[in-house]
Write a structure and sequence with these properties.
The chain is mainly α. The protein has 14 helices and five strands. It has a three-stranded parallel beta sheet. A two-stranded parallel sheet has the order 4-5. It binds adenosine-5'-diphosphate.
Length: 347
């Protein structure tokens, strides 16, 4: 088996309303992984346009996600931060993966069904083939680990299927070109901790999302202390007090989600949160949760504001990151073209 050096890749869409789910399910983990890994973090603007984005706001949304990465603690000098559309190799590899992935595989993607809604005929072709581009984002760096929220699990499985099929279909060519028995790694998803699926504050059966029509359903990273406290105070809960064990949280999705948020913010487990708050009413727990959320989010929000006041600086970070990403991605694309049998430019 080919041994791949460990490399982390993940992305966030610049579609506005960056929320607590994005922070706890993804960005907070990106920050932690920098300690022991080479990381590539991407603002996936080409994914964003699979649904309509106003060109007048897209660039600001790209800068907002970049500012959030940096404000949360991602180091764009030690690691790589860039926006996807600056590295054309993502789209090149996605085309090849369009020819590797099967219609049947994509037809099974639940996120497409959710996002396309009732009128699938009107969804963009990009929304349907989105997971192939996501596989290309990851595999153009031959990344071995991808930190994501629980909603991305199925797409990560598809990424492994695509890698495996490419490795099998082109096996002899991969060996001939000197890449051993596998060209692409079978990437591992990193989906761990108490907040891999943060739920809407209005409905514990739906995930917190950027597109929910209700602002009260999500805490966004730019909310001020007062707004955060208000949203938590108004969060839907049931009338029972907090139990003293995890089993009794089952079947209480709103309660479970708030406990999960507290645990992730406090960097502890849900059991430890229950041990501290067992028997308390939500009227007692919610102010503590609000204080903790403000303590963590306020410095992020003010740092984001500072960074966003200087768009030129953010753009320079993105173009520097893109230059470094392109070096890695172009090596992969060159090899893939040789493996597939395309004629390369004469040297
Ligand atoms: P969204 O799903 O909010 O449009 P993205 O698709 O850009 O955002 O996802 C960025 C990251 O945030 C992904 O890793 C995704 O799994 C994670 N994420 C999104 N929503 C949640 C949530 N409610 N809870 C936990 N993680 C989430």
């Amino acid at each position: 088996m080919t041994k791949f050096p460990e490399r982390v890749f993940s992305g966030v869409q610049p579609t506005g309303n960056l929320h607590l789910g994005n922070y706890l399910g993804a960005i907070k983990k990106f920050v932690a992984l920098q300690e022991n890994h080479d990381c590539i973090y991407c603002v996936v603007d080409m994914h964003a346009i699979t649904t309509w984005q106003d060109p007048k706001v897209l660039a600001d949304n790209i800068r907002e996600v970049t500012a959030a990465f940096i404000a949360c603690g991602i180091d764009p000098e030690k690691h790589i931060v860039f926006n996807q559309s600056q590295v054309a190799e993502h789209a090149e590899l996605a085309w090849i993966f369009n020819c590797v992935a099967r219609m049947g595989w994509l037809n099974r993607m639940t996120q497409f069904k959710d996002r396309a809604g009732k009128d699938r005929e009107k969804a963009s072709v990009g929304l349907f083939s989105y997971p192939n581009l996501m596989a290309a984002d990851i595999l153009v760096y031959r990344a071995t680990h991808v930190p994501v929220g629980d909603d991305q699990k199925q797409h990560l499985e598809l990424t492994r299927d695509i890698a495996q099929k490419f490795n099998n279909d082109f096996g002899p060519s991969i060996a001939e070109e000197g890449y051993g028995d596998q060209f692409f790694p079978l990437t591992e998803p990193l989906i761990e901790g108490p907040a891999t699926r943060v739920m809407s504050l209005r409905d514990g059966t739906k995930k917190m999302s950027k597109s929910d029509p209700s602002d009260l359903s999500r805490i966004v990273l730019t909310d001020n202390a007062e707004t955060i406290a208000k949203k938590i105070r108004k969060a839907k809960t049931d009338p029972a007090p907090l139990p003293d064990n995890l089993d009794e949280l089952k079947g209480r999705p709103e309660a479970e989600s708030l406990v999960g948020i507290y645990a992730a913010l406090a960097e502890t487990g849900k059991d430890a949160v229950l041990a501290e708050f067992a028997g308390q009413e939500f009227s007692q727990f919610k102010p503590k949760l609000a204080d903790l959320a403000v303590e963590i989010l306020a410095p992020i929000s003010s740092e984001m504001q500072k960074l966003q006041a200087d768009p030129g600086h953010i753009d320079a970070i993105l173009s520097n990151g893109a230059d470094r990403a392109r070096v890695l991605a172009s090596d992969t694309i060159k090899a893939v073209k040789e493996i597939v049998g395309f004629i390369m430019p004469a040297t």
